[in-house]
Amino acid sequence: MTTATPDRGQRLVERIPLHQKQPTAKPPKKMPHWLARLLQLLAILLLLLLAVVSCRESEKPTSLATSTLAGPRLVTGPICLEEAVDVSGSMEQFRDQREQAELALFTFARRVLTDADRLSTAFFAGSGELALRPTALRSLTRPPRMPTITQPDGTNLGPAVDKLVAARTRNGKASTCAARALVVITDGLLGDEQAAISKSLRAGNYTRIFAVIPAETGWGRPSELTGGALDSVSVYHFTGSGLGARLASVFADGKPLDVVLGEIVGSLTGQHLDQLPTN
After folding, report:
1. Torsion angle of alpha carbons 58, 59, 60, 66, nearest 10°?
2. Region annotation Disordered: residue ranges (predicted)?
3. Where are the alpha helices (DSSP H) in 16-140?
4. What is the mean pLDDT of the chain?
5. Are strands 173-174 and 169-170 parallel, antiparallel or unpaired?
6. CA-closest candidate to residue 134, choices 111, 148, 157, 117
7. How far from 28 is each of 31, 35, 36, 116, CA to CA, in Å?
8. Long-range contacts of range 170-176, CB-CB < 8 Å, 24 or more positions apart?
9. What superfamily in CATH does domain 61-271 come from?
10. d(Cα 210, Cα 14) in Å, to the nearest integer?
11. Distance in angstroms between the alpha carbons of the first and the last residue of the chain
12. Nearest residue to 124 via CA among 209, 197, 184
């Protein structure tokens, strides 16, 4: 019995790809139903979050020039701001920004504060020096000049606080305030011993204590502002300009420095800072 031998031409044709069986494409894998629903939900939540953030950002005052204090003034006497300004090397880059914010505060004070509301200022590095005795905020037209710091190296807040407290008494008479705040403009890298700074802050008998920190130096609470009396310090962040400022505004509730100062004033009078209505 003989076996038929395939024709050579037939074998050649079978080797030609066009005549071979083509592979069938596998259908694409479908996304699981639960995963599709989860992604849709996340997209909706993201849109809602963006809407909330956008609304909150649009309501924030952008400067004291376009803001006012809303609501009735709840304190019956003068408010007093005692400003301690960090002039160590790490804060030099923020000097112009601080002075512009203070000028905006003085103009704002002439619109919304009384003749009895006062500001005093001390500067500090390794030591502290008084620059401005308690003075009516409405009478100020320029930032106080920085006196010579006898110890320019270091960052010790305590000596500045001691000078501010001592300045309340003049000609044997101590000034009184319905509400008194210490405003520390610093990057928070303080070198005071905790027992010493706690003693100075308690001697100040402040209604509120604020640390106002550049957002560029960090968005959190500096570790140096913890322990003892430092736990009572409220930390605010002020912003510069550009993308970093917008991010700090969203994630660290950062604001321009003049706006931060205005909000502090409002916290003492019992009012809140609000944007002036636009025409």
Report:
1. 100
2. 1-29
3. 33-59, 95-112
4. 85
5. antiparallel
6. 117
7. 9, 16, 15, 77
8. 170/133, 175/80, 175/118, 175/134, 176/77, 176/78
9. von Willebrand factor, type A domain (3.40.50.410)
10. 88
11. 109
12. 184
Q: Rounded to an integer, what distance in angstroms lies between the CA atom of residue 247 and that of residue 75?
A: 35
Q: What is the pTM of this model?
A: 0.77
**pLDDT tens, residue by residue, 55-107:** 554 567 889 999 999 999 999 999 999 999 999 999 999 999 999 999 999 99
Q: What is the pLDDT of residues 134-178, one digit of tens each?
A: 999 999 999 999 999 999 999 999 999 999 999 999 878 888 999
DSSP, res 250: H
Residue with token string 């006012």: 68
Helices (H) and strands (E) in the chain, counts: 7, 11
228 CB-side CA count, 13 A:
14
